[in-house]
Design brief:
mainly alpha
């Protein structure tokens, strides 16, 4: 049951990120799915070949096994993205501070582009590694059944793909991605509120204040009232007649 819930959550965030990218970045969405498809099909074939030969997938790579490890090692990719930010942005910020002491600082340049390159590198890795993991999982499922489909890393690989598309969505369209991620929670809250309200467990919502009345008061009644105050027609009454 835990695997099913994990898969459902990952599918949800994958769809949310893809829908956010579809709005204004359909080309980028196509490229990401192309990367996934390429890695998936290549490593599905490699895994099937390895299983037919009775070997591990690393045995087929032989002395080039570092290629497979580089494509699937998340720690190395995270180190690369962090190093790109550190070496690309760090010296500019430090030079800005030090040169500023002598009054000749220049603002850092290409910070956004360097940050975008680091994020997209991480996105590429997540989607590519997810495609590799799903390809190998399908290869094992082909031989050993659906039970091993989950055992051989299918949920984890789908997790990579889902978060890759979610990260890409937040990078290109943060507001649209956030709206799609939070929308199910808003729908659940609305349904729960209606359910409780029908059974008398919560008070019905109060009607909102009619803003037209407020606007009418601000534009018509309030100026008149202030005018009367300025003429002493409100707080100052007529002076009493003096006793003769």
């Amino acid at each position: 049951m835990g695997h099913v819930i994990d898969v459902a959550i990952n599918l949800f965030i994958l769809v949310a990120g893809s829908l956010a990218l579809r709005e204004r970045h359909s080309r980028e969405l196509y490229i990401l799915w192309y990367i996934f498809s390429g890695f998936f099909l290549v490593f599905l074939a490699v895994e099937v070949r390895a299983l037919h030969s009775g070997k591990d997938i690393l045995d087929l790579f032989g002395q080039y096994d570092y290629i497979y490890l580089a494509l699937t090692d998340f720690d190395d990719e995270l180190l690369f993205a962090s190093g790109l930010l550190y070496l690309g942005v760090g010296p500019q910020i430090l030079a800005y501070v030090l040169a500023g002491l002598f009054g000749c600082a220049s603002p850092p340049q290409f910070v956004r582009k360097i940050g975008s390159a680091a994020i997209l590198s991480l996105v590429k890795f997540l989607i590519g590694a997810g495609g590799i993991g799903l390809g190998t999982s399908v290869g094992y499922a082909y031989f050993d059944g659906v039970g091993d489909f989950f055992r051989w890393g299918f949920p984890g690989a789908l997790n990579y793909v889902g978060f890759g598309f979610l990260l890409a969505g937040f990078h290109y369209n943060p507001s649209g991605t956030l709206m799609r991620v939070l929308r199910p929670a808003a729908l659940v809250r609305k349904a729960a509120s209606q359910f409780l309200e029908k059974r008398g467990l919560v008070w019905p919502k109060r009607r909102r204040l009619d803003l037209s009345l407020v606007d009418q008061f601000a534009r018509v009644s309030l100026p008149r009232w202030l005018t009367r105050c300025s003429r002493h027609e409100v707080f100052v009454s007529e002076a009493p007649e003096s006793d003769k």
